[in-house]
Amino acid sequence: MRSRDSLWGTRLQFWGPPILAAFILTLMLIPAEYWRHPIDDAAYQGFDPNLIYVDRKGGAPSSGLVEVTSEELTLTALPNSRPTATLVTTPLRKLELEMDVQILAGGKGTVPFRVGVWSPNTKSGQFLQFGPPPSNLVTLDRVVDGIAGPTLVPGRISNSEILGSYVEGVSYRTKISIDRGAGRMHFRVVGGESPPTGHRMLRMTGRGHPVYPSHALSDWVEVKGG
What we know:
The protein is mainly β.
């Protein structure tokens, strides 16, 4: 005569697999709208040296300096260098990046800073560029037929839009939003600090018809934050 424990063991071996299979099938048949999805699949605060890929040369002959901490990412371009950093590589359909950009110094004929989104497969992308002095223009460049490497070397700029100008030493909140499903990218740059006193920030000019050298001209006007 078998014991009760032995009898339950036999029943579990016989009915266990069918019950487990039925439970899994029930979970598979539950409609997706009944599952609660997270708002964000992942969120990272600050700069993680373990996730960021750094190339101190960036395809140039010499090396620059790249310092990464949890609070700051500092790029210093020495002569004949193009230090770069890849913040994230992801197949996600949506992505948002937000950081403060500060240009401490830039030389004439150089590109002090450039940040953007690009695809090595299509060799195209969009880049927010903080241009060289003395104009210090901020432009949004659409690059096609580029050269894929540590960064996308522009082969041809299909469109360039001037967004404004920046001041060295001032922080600018920069936000990049990507939605692959909708085929959209959005760039936003906002200055969060007041410019130095007396800094030349704005001048209004205009032309009439026929074109005169200067139809309307004003002196430089200081613009204060807020």
